[in-house]
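User: Let's play a game. I give you a shape written as tokens, and you guess the letters that built it. Ready? Here's round one.
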């Protein structure tokens, strides 16, 4: 969109407040809000919109003419004519309609949305006409807010489709389906109900201006908007919300009008029939366990007795796996503070149980409830007491996202040195028979552990294969007792001075969970620790969103080939301003390789990475740093094996001493729009939208959005990979952590 169009909306945001007369008029109208919705609905004289309440906003007015056509046609006059025609059309369908202005007068932006909010209308429609610097451009579009509800988007899609068909104009290429989410329009940002802003055509187009002078043309435009409104009103989804994670039996709640004339409602999931309803109430129980985890498309089609059919679609995120979470590592020994952080993105509270598993088979069970649409934290030290090595399993009624932050003063059993810092991991959703770790080191000032938990009823027989860079595999055998946690000190098990990967196999078909803490003093001056959950299989592709080669940062890639044949690997580096830089290498069978990213891409680069191989491999990214001089530490991340449209992060904090970031990489050749919802621990949320260009890396500072304990939900128009670096001073522990988010359907 041109700067002229953007400036037009900037004017909308800054339009002067209304005069005392107009303010009094608006306040007088607002007193109508005292009339109950029930009374207003009873007044409606029947029709397809009986019971609906609308607020129609004729954009601009008075001293603000809006855009002006080539021969002087004022946008404010055109807007008012269309708005009046639209009011009559909606009223003829049985709706109750209010106007923000019915004359050529000044009305402030605040007065417009305040009127709609006070009246508690069902929908808000702002009527506008577009403009640009030339007299050729012409198309139709509808704007919605960045944090718009699915109902706003559905209304926008219906209206823009009708405008395009009736006026014979193409839809804008911006946004999705001609609907563009924006963050700078006050009447969209501050209305409490679903809201749209129509831009039916360009008044700056010479031929279009002539059409806009004709009353019958403006009547056609109003009819197109009314038809779109009528279609959207026939069927709307009340629940679930578009941020929900669904599992088990889920109720789909519809809001249908003129329900007495509904013949039947058909439900389809990804095009396959999932049920039919022929009687009220029109809600549907979806058995999500019949479907694999991931994004699914739910289509609902309503047939009325007059033969008309209306439909709507809603994307659903199914994740039955997210009802179970496992962590192998955990300790409350002196100097260690352990937490569990939970995000419930759903519309109802959910019960869950945490089982704390100790060495020797002892367990401790505790029950909790996660409030709806909020983030909560449990301090494990307070639950299990001091001096415990503890693993955790979580089982919830409905899906949650769970991470485990730990802050520590680690005392080296070899050198006696004390290394402070912290690390954080996202749990896994189920035990497995095989586990892989690409990174590992037992060199001086590096101390590596394997933490294993067996949540089952039978002891697990374990084979461990240490794979050094020289290819000489070191095998070991272990047993992990039922309902028990076990810790292995790799420096003793595999020997000192080795860079190595690890493969773990349960040989008697008893699944376990494996995690690898690694404590270090990198270069003798950057102490800290990192931790990752293992991968349960190799992959042909891996992605990392975070990465930096600036001063004080040392970035690496560790690649493990546990296969019996060499792996031919291509590494692509993606940068802030686009483009990629490839590198090829071969990894011998049963071996591991390190890559210095600093050497590959040079200094001062914000860089994301993709790794592609001809045979399955495992990839991790260690990153050591002195962050702004106050957090000398490091972290390691297991990559994601594909981009995704939806990402969830349970952990996050932007209070004093903490700096939280989100790093995104878009490895495709098409731009992606990412909508981020920041969920606070008090249940409030903040939404922002970001553009991530094709073949690029994008970074944003969460501290600039909110200051609190915060979880994050990301929805992208095109698949991306998302990672969250977090730098901190916790008490006196300075350090950092990073992790790829949770996405339904991705291996965990």
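Assistant: Ready! My guess for every position:
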């Amino acid at each position: 969109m041109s700067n002229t169009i953007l400036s037009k909306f900037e004017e909308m945001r800054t339009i002067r407040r209304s005069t005392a007369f107009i303010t009094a008029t608006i306040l007088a109208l607002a007193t109508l809000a005292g009339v109950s919705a029930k009374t207003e609905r009873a007044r409606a004289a029947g029709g397809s919109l009986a019971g609906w309440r609308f607020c129609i906003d004729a954009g601009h007015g008075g001293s603000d003419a809006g855009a002006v056509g080539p021969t002087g046609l004022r946008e404010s006059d055109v807007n008012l004519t269309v708005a009046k025609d639209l009011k009559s059309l909606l009223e003829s369908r049985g709706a109750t309609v209010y106007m923000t202005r019915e004359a050529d007068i000044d009305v402030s932006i605040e007065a417009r949305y305040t009127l709609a909010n006070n009246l508690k209308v069902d929908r808000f429609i702002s009527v506008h006409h577009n403009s640009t610097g030339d007299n050729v451009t012409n198309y139709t579009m509808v704007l919605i807010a960045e944090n718009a509800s699915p109902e706003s988007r559905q209304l926008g899609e219906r209206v823009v489709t009708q405008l395009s068909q009736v006026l014979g104009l193409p839809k804008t290429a911006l946004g999705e389906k001609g609907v563009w989410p924006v963050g700078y329009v006050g009447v969209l940002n501050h209305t409490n109900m679903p809201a749209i802003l129509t831009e039916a055509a360009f008044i700056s187009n010479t031929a279009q201006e002539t059409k806009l002078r004709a009353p019958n043309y403006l009547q056609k435009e109003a009819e197109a908007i009314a038809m779109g409104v009528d279609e959207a009103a026939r069927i709307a989804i009340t629940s679930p919300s578009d941020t929900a994670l669904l599992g088990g039996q889920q109720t789909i709640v519809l809001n249908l009008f003129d329900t007495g004339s509904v013949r039947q409602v058909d439900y389809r999931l990804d095009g396959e029939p999932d049920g039919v309803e022929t009687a009220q109430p029109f809600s549907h129980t979806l058995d999500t366990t019949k479907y694999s985890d991931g994004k699914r498309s739910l289509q609902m089609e309503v047939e009325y007795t007059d033969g008309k059919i209306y439909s709507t679609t809603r994307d659903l995120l199914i994740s039955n796996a997210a009802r179970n979470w496992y962590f192998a590592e955990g300790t409350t020994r002196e100097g260690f503070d352990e937490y569990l952080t939970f995000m419930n993105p759903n519309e109802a509270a959910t019960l869950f149980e945490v089982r704390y598993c100790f060495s020797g088979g002892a367990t401790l069970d505790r029950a909790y409830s996660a409030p709806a649409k909020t983030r909560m934290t449990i301090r494990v030290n307070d639950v299990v007491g001091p001096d415990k090595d503890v693993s955790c399993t979580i089982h919830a009624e409905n899906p949650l996202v769970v991470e485990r932050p730990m802050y520590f003063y680690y005392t080296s059993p070899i050198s006696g040195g004390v290394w402070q810092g912290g690390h954080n991991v996202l749990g896994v959703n189920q035990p497995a028979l095989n586990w892989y770790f690409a990174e590992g080191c037992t060199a001086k000032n590096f101390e590596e552990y394997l933490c294993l938990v067996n949540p089952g009823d039978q002891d697990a027989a374990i084979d461990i294969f240490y794979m050094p860079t020289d290819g000489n595999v070191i095998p070991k055998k272990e047993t992990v007792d039922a309902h028990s946690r076990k810790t292995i000190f790799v420096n003793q098990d595999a020997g000192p001075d080795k860079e190595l990967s690890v493969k773990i196999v349960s040989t008697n078909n008893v699944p376990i969970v494996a995690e690898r803490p690694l404590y270090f003093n990198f270069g003798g001056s950057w102490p800290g620790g990192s931790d990752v959950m293992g991968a349960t299989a190799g992959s042909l592709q891996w992605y990392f969103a975070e990465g930096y080669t600036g001063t004080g940062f040392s970035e690496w890639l560790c690649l493990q080939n546990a296969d019996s044949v060499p792996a031919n690997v291509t590494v692509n580096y993606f940068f802030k301003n686009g483009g990629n830089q490839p590198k090829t290498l071969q990894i011998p069978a049963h071996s591991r390789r390190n890559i210095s990213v600093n050497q590959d891409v040079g200094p001062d680069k914000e860089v994301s990475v993709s790794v592609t191989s001809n045979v399955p491999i495992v990839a991790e990214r260690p990153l050591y740093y002195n962050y702004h001089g106050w957090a000398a530490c490091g972290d390691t991340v297991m990559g994601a094996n594909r981009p995704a449209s939806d990402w969830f992060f349970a952990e996050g904090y932007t209070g004093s001493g903490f700096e939280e970031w989100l790093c995104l990489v878009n490895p495709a050749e098409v731009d992606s729009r990412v909508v981020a919802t920041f969920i606070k621990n008090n249940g409030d949320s903040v939404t922002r939208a970001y553009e991530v260009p094709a073949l690029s890396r994008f970074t944003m500072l969460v501290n600039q959005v909110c200051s609190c304990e915060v979880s994050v939900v990301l929805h992208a128009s095109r698949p991306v990979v998302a990672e969250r670096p977090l730098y901190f001073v916790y008490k006196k522990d300075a350090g950092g952590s990073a992790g790829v988010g949770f996405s339904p359907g991705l291996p965990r």
